[in-house]
Amino acid sequence: MMAKALQECPNSGFLWAESIFLEARPQRKAKSVDALKKCEHDPQVLLAVSRLFWSERKISKCREWFQRTLKIEPDLGDAWANWYRFEQLHGTEEQQNEVKQRCLAAEPHHGELWCSVSKNIKNWCFSAEQTLQAAAKEVEIPV
User: Fold this and answer.
1) What is the DSSP letter of 142?
2) 8 Å CB contact between 111 and 79
3) Angle at CA 31, nearest 5°, toward 22 and 44?
4) Mean pLDDT for each 10-residue chunk of the chain (143 residues)?
5) How far is CA 132 from CA 34, 47, 63, 95, 105, in A?
6) How far is CA 73 from the centre of its chain?
7) pLDDT of residue 15
8) Those residues with Cβ within 8 angstroms of residue 71's Cβ, 6 or more apart along the chain or in another chain
9) Keywords assigned by UniProt (predicted)?
10) What pLDDT is recorded for position 91?
11) Residue 82's beta-bridge partner residues?
12) SS3 at position 139
């Protein structure tokens, strides 16, 4: 089904990002290269590539790709939540605070995960910082 979807919508960054993690582990890198060729400036694809490096435990490359993602689309809350969760697991407290401060300055409003947390009726009074922390808890660690 994914192959058919990619034929019908070859420039859909969301589909390419999903297709990367549908592949078996050895084929993910090749699929990510294909995705970057088709949608090199799509934040969903860049986020998927940074998650791919996270799953491979390539810490510095992962940080670099999170920064690329957020340079293109600073309003993507999902990228902020993923990066913050990554720093909680692999970074120092300084790095966590830096991501948090940059996120608060960007004031993100988009992303599937971000919106599910921020628009949840239970979280109606959450600040951007609280939304970031709640969304980061919901991030699945890539394997």
Assistant:
1) P
2) yes
3) 75
4) 94 96 95 95 97 97 97 97 98 97 97 96 95 97 91
5) 31, 16, 17, 15, 12
6) 11
7) 97
8) none
9) Repeat
10) 96
11) none
12) coil
Cα–Cα distance list, 106 to 15, 44, 77, 87 (Å): 26, 17, 9, 18
Distances (CA, A) of 98 to 1, 10, 31, 80, 103: 40, 36, 31, 11, 8
CA distance 16 to 5: 10
Question: Scanning the structure block, which residue is given the tokens 């990002």?
Answer: 17
Note the pLDDT of residue 141.
94
Q: Which residues pair with 110 in a beta bridge?
A: 76
* The pLDDT value given to residue 22: 95
Instruction: Give strand pairing partners of 76.
Output: 110
Where does 2-138 sit in CATH, by number? 1.25.40.10
CB–CB of 6/19 below 8 Å?
yes
Locus of tokens 């951007």: 128
| Two tokens, residue 84 | 């913050």
Q: Do the beta carbons of residue 81 and residue 132 sit within 8 Å?
A: yes
Q: Which residue has the tokens 């992303």?
A: 111
Among 106, 103, 105, smallest CA distance to 84 is for: 103
Domain boundaries in the chain? 2-138
